[in-house]
Amino acid sequence: MDWVRGKEIGRGGFSTVHLATPAQTCSSDHTPVMAVKSCDAALSSSLRHETRVLSELGDCPRIVRCFGDALTGCEELYNVLLEYAAGGSLADSLKSRGKPLWEPEIRGHTRSILQGLEFVHSKGYVHCDVKLQNILVFPNGGGEDVKIADFGLAKRAGERLAKGGKLGGFEWRGTPMFMAPESVNRNEYEPPSDIWALGCAVVEMATGRPAWGLQAGSNAYALMIRIGVGDEIPEIPEGLSEQGKDFLTKCFTKNPKKRWTARMLLKHPFLALDGALNDEEVVRDCGAEFTDSSPRCHFDFQDWVSTQCSRTSWESGSLSPSSEIDSDPSLTALEIWADDSSSVIDRIGELASQERPNWEHSEGWVTVR
C-alpha cells in the first residue's frame, strides 16, 4: 500500500508515530486515517516482532489492526501501518478527565480488554505488557470502544525467555507496576500474568492512580520486593461495588494456577452488571459474596454444615426456630424447618396426602432462578 506520512502524534524510546493516509485517496474527505509507527531499521527488532505477532493473531475487534509494513527513506526506516485511535490511550483519557472512571465505564472497558486477552491467549500468546498506556480508545457514536495495542513484548505461551541478561539471568518484561509475582520470582510470563496486570489496570481506572500507589521514577527494585515477597497485593478500591472487589481478588490471586482465566472472568457478575440488569437479576455463580444467605442453587450450601439429628426429634417436631437455635447454633436449616404449628412429619404428610397442601403461611421463601 502506498501511503503519505502526516503529522507526528507520538514518540517513544526507539520509535515515532505519525498519521498516515493512503496515497491514492489522500485528496478525499473520506480518506481512512492510519497511524504509522516508525523506527531506525537497524533498531527495528521489537517492531518487526510486533508485526509478526499481529499477523499470526489475525483480526479481532478488540485488538488494534495491522495493515502491513514497509521500508522507506532508502530503507533506513522500518514502518508499521496500524489502525488509528482518535481517542489516544486509556491512560491519556484518564489523565485528561482528571478523575477516575465511573464503574459502568470500568466494566465496559474491562470486558473489552478481557475479550481481547481471551483471544490472544486462545492463539497461544501472552501480551506481557497490559497497561492503560497500551489500551487505545476509539470514539464510537457518543461512546467509546477500547482495543489492545503494542505487542512488541508479546511471547508464545510456554516459551522460555533468554537468560544471561543484566538481572542475574532474568529478563524482566513489561512495566514493573503491572508485573505479577511469578514474573518477579521465577521469570514466568504466561497468560495468568496478563490477568494480574489487568487487575492493576482496573485499580488505576477506579482510582486514577497506579495500583501500587507509586509514581514514575519510584524505586523499581523495592517494588519488586513488595510484589514478589509475602502476601501483599495492590489495595482494592473501597469505592468499587462488592462484585468489583471480588473481581479484583480473582485477578490478584498470588498463585497463578489458582488465578482466574480471561474466559472465567468474562462470566463474573461484575461484568454482567449494566444498565439493563440490577443486582438481583445477575447470575450469582462465580463466588461473589452477598448479604442474602438463602441458597441460589444446589451448590450454594457451603456454610450449612450438616449435623446429625435424632429420630425422636423429627417425629416429635421438637426442633423449632424459637426453642432450638439459641441453645444449639450448629443446627442446620433442614433440622429447624419445623415451626410451632406443625412438625416435619406433618408437613411431609401434607405432601403425601390427596388434598392440595396450603403454603400460604410459608413466609420467608425466596425466588430461585
TrEMBL record:
<comment type="similarity">
    <text>Belongs to the protein kinase superfamily.</text>
</comment>
<keyword id="KW-0067">ATP-binding</keyword>
<protein>
    <submittedName>
        <fullName>Mitogen-activated protein kinase kinase kinase 20-like</fullName>
    </submittedName>
</protein>
<feature type="domain" description="Protein kinase">
    <location>
        <begin position="3"/>
        <end position="271"/>
    </location>
</feature>
<keyword id="KW-0808">Transferase</keyword>
<dbReference type="InterPro" id="IPR052751">
    <property type="entry name" value="Plant_MAPKKK"/>
</dbReference>
<dbReference type="InterPro" id="IPR011009">
    <property type="entry name" value="Kinase-like_dom_sf"/>
</dbReference>
<feature type="binding site">
    <location>
        <position position="37"/>
    </location>
    <ligand>
        <name>ATP</name>
    </ligand>
</feature>
<keyword id="KW-0723">Serine/threonine-protein kinase</keyword>
<keyword id="KW-0418">Kinase</keyword>
<keyword id="KW-0547">Nucleotide-binding</keyword>
<dbReference type="InterPro" id="IPR000719">
    <property type="entry name" value="Prot_kinase_dom"/>
</dbReference>
<dbReference type="InterPro" id="IPR017441">
    <property type="entry name" value="Protein_kinase_ATP_BS"/>
</dbReference>
<dbReference type="InterPro" id="IPR008271">
    <property type="entry name" value="Ser/Thr_kinase_AS"/>
</dbReference>
<dbReference type="Pfam" id="PF00069">
    <property type="entry name" value="Pkinase"/>
</dbReference>
